[in-house]
Amino acid sequence: MEGLGNGLALIGAAMAVFLAGAGSAVGIGTAGRSAAGVLTDKPERYGLNFIMVVLPGTQGFYGFLAGFLVLLNMNLFGEGGVKQLTWMQGVQVIGACLPIAVTGLISAIHQGRVCAGGILMAAKRPEMAFKAGVVYAVLVEVYAVLGLLITMFAILLGGIFPA
């Protein structure tokens, strides 16, 4: 059973990175398809569309940050060896990573859909692009930020990792 805690902690870090990243990939793909369709007729809208295409990518960065924090707290990159976690601490790390993993996955997919709608709307009413396109997409982003904050608080302030 030695190493089980570290293995579980690495699974938690991987879940944060992979699930949030997968959501970002799906969201960017959804928004990108809409942008590509609009750009065939209106190439001058590239800059505005680019913003709405990349917005769902932020959740992937949040998941990466959470995973990186776990690895740092395990001292994976430092001198003196990796901290040995109990199986219970490993389970706690998984629990700490779940908020950004789940909110990152779901919010990125839905943000991509909102951005796709904003891109299509901006094709006909460019003056509404920021108000209706970007602002609505940012409202979805709030929940990923909240997931990241809970994950960060749990990792950094939760007392999971040994001193």
From TrEMBL:
CDD domains: ATP-synt_Vo_Ao_c_NTPK_rpt1 (cd18179), ATP-synt_Vo_Ao_c_NTPK_rpt2 (cd18180). Pfam families: ATP-synt_C. Residues 11-69, 94-153 form the V-ATPase proteolipid subunit C-like domain. It is found in: Membrane. The chain crosses the membrane at residues 60-78, 134-161. GO terms for cellular component: proton-transporting two-sector ATPase complex, proton-transporting domain. The keyword Transmembrane helix applies. InterPro entries: ATPase_proteolipid_c-like_dom, F/V-ATP_Csub_sf. Its main location: membrane. Keywords: Membrane, Transmembrane, Transmembrane helix. GO terms for molecular function: proton transmembrane transporter activity. It is a multi-pass membrane protein. This is V-type ATP synthase subunit K.
